Amino acid sequence: MRRVAALIVHNWPLKVAAIVLATLLYAGLALSQSAQRFDGQIPILPRNLPASAVLVNDLGNITEVRYFAPADIAARVTSQSFSAYVDLQGIDPTKGPTFAPVHLDPVDPRISIVGFSPMQVRVELDPLTSKSVRIRVVYEGSIPPGLQVGQPQLSVDNTIISGPQSLVKRVTEAQARVIIQPNGLDIDEQVSLVPVDALGDAVRVDVEPATVRVQIRVGSQADTKTLPVNPVITGQPAVGFDVGTIQVDPVTVTVSGDSDALASLLSIDTAPVSIDGASADVAASVPLALPNGVQAIGGKDVSVSVNIIPLSSNRT
After folding, report:
1. What is the pLDDT of residues 50-83, one digit of tens each?
2. Is the dihedral of CA 158, 163, 165, 168 positive or negative?
3. Is 292 exposed, middle or buried (0-12, 13-18, 19+ CB in 10 A)?
4. Model-level pTM?
């Protein structure tokens, strides 16, 4: 009898702890089996999103909730009875995708949540960034036959795009898409800008400015005219030197445009060539200063050579 009592008393704290643990596990199992179950879609919302990042992926929904509630409350439980969220505070957007715990709160305090699924979700934050891209005019559809389309004039040449880093780095340009009407009317309008990637597909990022003013002369009476090139020289050579001969290559250039634009033209100026302070010959390749609505056929640059000579003097 003493041996049996010693066997029972031996390691009694461990035995008591085992009995308590078994009781708790049995009680938890019994409670979970008697708990109510809600199978629905509870949206998981983000909270405390960092100001320098944007949430790229969808957090999804909680699809299963186990809970206790009075019978009258349980009969009216819907997805609106719960609030699910993920706390994004402290998540570094530069570290790539991660997993974060999901929090679920009952709207009615008489509802006690036992468990839910999923208890964590994948979170992908993307740093916010921006960059400048050039604006290019793109004609939608084909240009009606018989129309001469001039060089587009834009109010700004570049725009700033901003958004998630993964999207911003895809953008190569911002397109201003216009349509040339068959009636040949000139274009003068504000056009929305569309950021696109290298394949021409639109990318959803913010654009500032979002529009650009596009002016295009459209003429149905296109004409050509050959005109002499007039080199424009600015400045004065160094003291003791003077300007000798001035040569331009090519001497003439053929331009095109509507008849009204070409009628008053007697020559085509070049961009200014400076000889200020020069004591030797000056040679430069400069573009043509073409008026609005006039285009050069062929190259738009010409070569200008200015001969700088020393001044001659007499002395008695």
Report:
1. 988 989 899 999 999 999 999 999 999 999 999 9
2. negative
3. exposed
4. 0.49
